[in-house]
Amino acid sequence: MIKVVRTVSLIAATIFSVSALLGLTDTPVILTVRGHVLEVHPLPHYPDEARKDHLVGKSVLSLHVHTDGVVDAAKIIKSTGYKILDDEAIRTMRTWRFRPENRDFTVKVPCDFELGKNDL
Fold first, then answer.
1. Least confidently predicted of 9-18, 35-44, 59-68, 96-105
2. CATH code assigned at 73
3. Start-end of H helices in 1-120
4. How far apart are CA 2 and CA 106, in angstroms?
5. 97 is in which domain, residue-wise?
């Protein structure tokens, strides 16, 4: 099981789903605490090698988002401790898309890789 944490402390953007609350769409709408709208947000894939080796970890990434909503840079602020997990988090979050805005912005996002009891 992989889990991308949706809420974090002050250092990271708190992300939450508002689609059900608003009842406007079946597609989840994600907002950061600063009001940036995350429109495309696939979850990272748990790499087979990492799963086989029972690698787990928690990371925090910094995403720089261009005015067109494209994540043009992603870097690890806090590592999982495993390059394979950090690389997967970066690869996936670079595919995220935010609603376009008038200026570039940066958000901090947590990403936890956890194995469930069925994975052990």
1. 9-18
2. 3.30.2420.10
3. 19-22, 48-52, 83-93
4. 24
5. 2-119
